[in-house]
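User: Some background: our group keeps a shared notebook of sequences we're curious about, and every so often someone picks one and asks for a predicted structure to add to the entry. Today it's my turn. The entry only has the sequence so far, pasted here. Could you supply the structure so I can complete it?
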Amino acid sequence: MLTGIRNGIVTYVRDLRCLTPNARKYLLGSFFIGMTFSSFMLLLNLYLRECGYTESFIGRVLSAGALGMTLVSIPGAVLLSRIKLKPILVFSTIMYVMCGLVTIYTDVKLVIWVAYFFAGAMMTFYRIASAPFFMRNSSSTERPYLFSLNFGIAVAAGVVGSFLFGKLVHLFVASFGYDMLWAHRLSLTVGLSFSLFALIPFALLAMPKKIQEEDKLHLDRKVFRSMKGIFLKLTLPYFIVGTGAGIIIPFLNLFFRDRFGQSSENIGFYYGLVNLTMFVGIMAGPVLARKLGMVRTIVFTQLASIPFMLVLAFSYNFPLVFFAFLLRGALMNMGHPIGTNFAMEMVPKAYHGLMNALLMLAWTSSWMISTQIGGMVIESYGYTVSLVTAILFYVVSSVVYYVYFRKAERFTPEGVVIQSEYRMTG
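Assistant: Of course. Here's the predicted structure to add to the notebook entry:
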């Protein structure tokens, strides 16, 4: 057994060493972007609550960011296939920081909504560029590790960021005498500054001098016909699980504050730990996928998180809830990068950008709807109803995914391979 574990680690490290310089630069940029995301995931809701806004308004703000991502995802995929990636990444990162600053330094509700809408729109380019970029800058051997590492690095940034930004709030209050509102506002400002560091590795990316015609995305009849087939099958489970996630996940920081009376500093510590368990789970995902296949790994890990969701819904025992919070995060996110990799493998190279954009569209459009619903449900009925509703969506998503793709993979002596009849032809 020890020999098997040792060989697995050696193989894992060997494949990671094969990463191209371009992939390494993108991953470094992902870390800095992840620091900003972690600050907003942890503190934005708490900051808006300090401003006196209700859960319903907070839900509308979160849905504004999702709406921006939704509207830009498909046009963004077309644009990224025709314009060099480097200047788009640099420009969109700068604009994201500016929109984020407007979000946290205005007291006008409409301006907050509009600014966060454009922040979401700007960050769309970074998110939809990653999967096709990795497909072009890796081989099939290290690709599953690269997808997991990209997601894992964002989570690792969340580990650092959650610990840091929770402490920052406390520091600004205890050491500098700021009130809680300004402590949250300044901590979010520090979080936004990390995105600016991402400009350095993004600017150093080595891009082809000319975009090849076969890499350009054309939205013709063939593509729209395929949207009723493989594209729909790959995105529908994402939409369903995203709807469930949007109902409760953005509000878990408020859940700890309202149900257990936890401070921002403590919540930052909890988010740091859950990001740590998520990182371990995500990095273990490719090993599990090699044994079970990508489809079974996605379905198994998603369903395995359900018992821990039930604990969150019905228990008021804090240690038990905290333990469930950690394991739910690890299991639920383990299959996410594997699902993206699987979707990329199912479509030809020319459609990688579109496929990634459609996955993002499915996720963000579901959040656009469900975060508003989640805020209203929590305000009216509490967290238990929202958690149980999310569980139902998770189960349906797992069943749909399994029904669609249970026969898509075949086990061979060389490993698990996708059967050609399930792929979209070029």
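Suggested note for the entry: The first helix runs from residue 2 to 17. The two ends are 43 Å apart (CA to CA).
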